[in-house]
Amino acid sequence: MALAIFLFTYVFIAGVRLPFPRLDRPGGALVGAVLMVVAGVVAPSQLFGSNEGSPHAVDMDTLILLLGMMLLADYLSRASFFRAAGAWALQKAHTPRLLLVAVAATSAFLSAFLVNDTVCLMLTPLVLVVVEDARLPPIPYLLAVCMASNSGSVATFTGNPQNMLIQGASKLPYAQFAAYMALPAIVSTAVVIAGLLYIFRHDLSHERFSTHPPPVPVDRPLLGLTLVTLLGVVAAFFAGLPMSWSALTGAAVVMTLARRVSPREALERVDYVLLLFFASLFVVVFGVNQAGWAEDIHRLFSPFMSGPPWRETLGFAGLTLVASNLFSNVPFVMLARPWVPTLQEPVLGWHVLALGSTLAGNLTLVGSVANLIVFEAARDKVSLSFLGYLRVGLPITLVSFVLALAVLLAEHALF
Questions:
Q1: For the whole model, what pTM was predicted?
Q2: What integer is the mean pLDDT of 190-203?
Q3: Other CB atoms within 10 Å distance of the CB of residue 380
Q4: How many CB atoms lie within 10 A of CB 412?
Q5: What is the 3-state secondary structure (H, E, C) of 305-337?
Q6: What would the pLDDT profile of 367-404 be if each residue is shown by its tens digit?
Q7: Which residue among 62, 197, 249, 305 is buried most deeply as judged by most CB within 10 Å?
Q8: C-alpha 14 chain-centroid distance
């Protein structure tokens, strides 16, 4: 029963559209969670852990962390931080190639500290305006936004949702994780930039031009308040304080002190559908684990991860890259979290899981939510097919993953 419900849910998570039932990803996950409870696979008392110390389905720390970062990102957006940062970077670029580098670097840097989906949502409209004004092909720059956002988000726990899930399960210190993952994030971002420059070398000239991004009115008091608070939150992360409540405390501080934005306005812009989607997936995957199917899947792939630590790590890395595209990265991370403590080098395993599940998002158009956000926002001006994206995503993903994994393994060998 648990496997049947999981497969039913997976159909909709994979983005398959059926004439009946007409469910999308969040709806399919919610129905799957309800079925797990109705079928008796997951007891209602197991949803939130009513008994202290007992296993529970919904990881509230991850949801609270995501909620806090969403609120902080919304206040930054209201202060025009994303538009101002993007406009500044674009003004520094005077050739099509430098413009692509500026777009990718800005997207990667912002995504290292804020949820990458939010960064893509804010940068895409500005990039479209600039490339249209400069009469440049939009596809290379849109790819730079989403692919660099994915690679940059590797660097920290707050870069993307799957890293937040890994933080909740691993309890690794924020500073330690960032210390190991920063260089792989930089390397993979460099590969994204170099790959796009090479693939679109005939479309991007060296001729100088002047960009004219629209003027950005910045709410300086709100921007100053939010940036100072965000720096305090990041400092709390590095100090080892609970990440979930540090983020939510920071959001509460800004909500209390911001004069021009009512709390209701900020709360109404939170993506509660995404939070519900995560909570529902927690229940579905918990049911699969309860029934023993996750362990069976682990045993199925264990021959590829047997032997010395280096072979186990490479097998797990390859499995993560492939399975994150088959299952989607967030559900796979939820499924694979119980496996990592059984590895010979668990800390390395958590790092590999974060690296592989995130960079896997660059492989296909539907590989990550960031990709969908960018090209959905640009649907009226540009169209990119699945195969058209794959032509770019396949080589960049494979090269960036291999090089970033080599850097990560070297770091663990040296330190």
A1: 0.84
A2: 94
A3: 7
A4: 16
A5: HCCCHHHHHHHHHHHHHHHHHHCCHHHHHHHHC
A6: 787 888 888 788 888 888 888 899 999 999 999 999 99
A7: 62
A8: 17
